[in-house]
Amino acid sequence: MLVVSAHITQATNDKQEIVPALSKLCALPKALGTATHLLADTGYFSQTNVQACITSNIQPSLAAGRDQHHRSVFDRFAPDAPAPDTEDPVALMKHQLTTQSGRTLYALRKQTVEPVFGIIKHVMGLRQFSLRGADNVRGEWTLATLAWNVKRMNVLRPAL
């Protein structure tokens, strides 16, 4: 749950943010490892974003719509449907999200990304930016994510 890259935007639509995020991920030092999967909610879903992930050698898991909660026990433990006979990356990704492994992978989003935003907002008190202007907000957000990372690394450090 460490923030490795952060940026701000004035765009009202998240669909435009996958490509900049991918370029920042690809620019990170190799010592940090490489991203293999990208998990994102429905606001990021588009055919262009799925293709951008594949071009960057990252498996996309972008929710294409809202899933039904509290599925029946028969649905939860049913065998996976066979993969569609197509080369369409969107269809393949949608199918992958319906499999047991795909649902398990996508569920990680709830414990990796969402808590960070919640803690920054509720615990650290950053509910709105104090400064105005994109450059100032970028600096404030960078400080907030840096503070989060210091807080998180303190929790992760080995006990002496």
What do you see in this structure?
The protein is mainly alpha-helical and 160 residues long. Helix content is 48%, strand content 5%. A two-stranded parallel ribbon has the order 1-2. The protein is globular, with a radius of gyration of 18 Å. The mean pLDDT is 88.
Judging from the principal axes of the Cα atoms, what is the shape? globular
Helix amount = 40-55%
Mean pLDDT: 88
Instruction: Give the number of helices.
Output: 8
User: What are the segments in which pLDDT stays under 50 over at least 5 consecutive residues?
Assistant: none
Tell me the radius of gyration: 18 Å
Assembly category: single chain
Number of strands: 2
Question: Can you tell me the number of structural domains?
Answer: 2
H/E series, N to C? HEHEHHHHHH
How does the major sheet shape up? Answer: 2 strands, parallel
Given helix and strand content, the structural type is mainly alpha
Strand order of the largest sheet: 1-2
Tell me the β content: 5-15%
N-end to C-end Cα span = 22 Å
